[in-house]
């Protein structure tokens, strides 16, 4: 899963990046509103963390531009102010959730996961794929009841496919969501990850739709 962090405070920005990366996200981060608007407009994110008090272009203006352009990824707004009118403005501008500073990183990660889970129509943090069970909260997995070892990229690939139930996802789209802007990822890398997962858990763990991409037939 790929997340955009927009925060001008370098310490908070670094803390957000560390917490989200530790939770299995691929993270891009920017420090001003102009960069945020551009990144959210040209890149495909699964969620964004957006501070309101930004230089160059304020957070509400960024959010309104994203929504006007049809960018529908979940957005959690951050603000140093607890004024309820600002919360209303954020929700009306298209925010999906709101957190006042200071906040606990664990709570923010849980809210991001909750928004993405609801967007995929899932009620639980447990993803079942045949005999494989992913716990997206604890970042752990079991296969036929025994602990299973997954690399971070393997886990993120399965997690992303589980958020696209019944839809075939191209290798290029998977690469966009597994790797951040500063990382190198392409269709060949995705094919290698899929091949490893099939060797570990059986060829049926990930199906291929020729000309369309990969999907989990039994993800849930």
From TrEMBL:
This is DNA-binding response regulator, OmpR family, contains REC and winged-helix (WHTH) domain. PANTHER family: REGULATOR OF RPOS, RESPONSE REGULATOR PROTEIN CARR. The modification 4-aspartylphosphate is found at residue 51. Keywords: DNA-binding, Phosphoprotein, Transcription, Transcription regulation, Two-component regulatory system. InterPro entries: CheY-like_superfamily, OmpR/PhoB-type_DNA-bd, Sig_transdc_resp-reg_receiver, WalR-like, WH-like_DNA-bd_sf. One of its GO terms (biological process) is regulation of DNA-templated transcription. SMART domains: REC (SM00448), Trans_reg_C (SM00862). Residues 2-116 form the Response regulatory domain. Residues 124-218 form the OmpR/PhoB-type domain. CDD domains: REC_OmpR_EcPhoP-like, trans_reg_C. The keyword Zinc-finger does not apply. It comes from Pseudoxanthomonas wuyuanensis. Residues 124-218 bind DNA. One of its GO terms (molecular function) is phosphorelay response regulator activity. Pfam families: Response_reg, Trans_reg_C. GO terms for cellular component: cytosol; protein-DNA complex.
């Amino acid at each position: 899963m790929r997340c955009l962090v927009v925060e001008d405070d370098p310490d908070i920005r670094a803390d957000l990046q560390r917490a989200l990366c530790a939770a299995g996200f691929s993270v891009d981060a920017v420090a001003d509103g102009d960069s945020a608007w551009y990144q959210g407009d040209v890149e495909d994110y699964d969620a964004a963390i957006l501070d309101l008090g930004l230089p160059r272009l304020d957070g509400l203006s960024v959010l309104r531009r994203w929504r006007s352009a049809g960018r529908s990824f979940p957005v959690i707004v951050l603000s140093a102010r607890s004024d309820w009118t600002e919360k209303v403005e954020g929700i009306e501008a298209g925010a999906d959730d709101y957190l006042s500073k200071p906040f606990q990183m664990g709570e923010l990660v849980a809210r991001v996961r909750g928004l993405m889970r609801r967007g995929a129509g899932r009620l639980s943090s447990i993803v079942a794929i045949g005999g494989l069970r992913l716990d997206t909260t604890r970042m752990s997995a079991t296969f036929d009841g025994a602990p299973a070892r997954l690399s971070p990229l393997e886990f993120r690939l399965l997690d992303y496919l589980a958020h696209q139930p019944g839809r075939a996802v191209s290798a290029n789209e998977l690469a966009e969501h597994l790797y951040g802007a500063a990382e190198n990822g392409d269709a060949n890398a995705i094919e290698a990850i899929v091949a490893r997962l099939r060797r570990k858990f059986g060829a049926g763990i990930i199906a291929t739709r020729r000309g369309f991409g990969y999907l989990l037939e039994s993800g849930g």
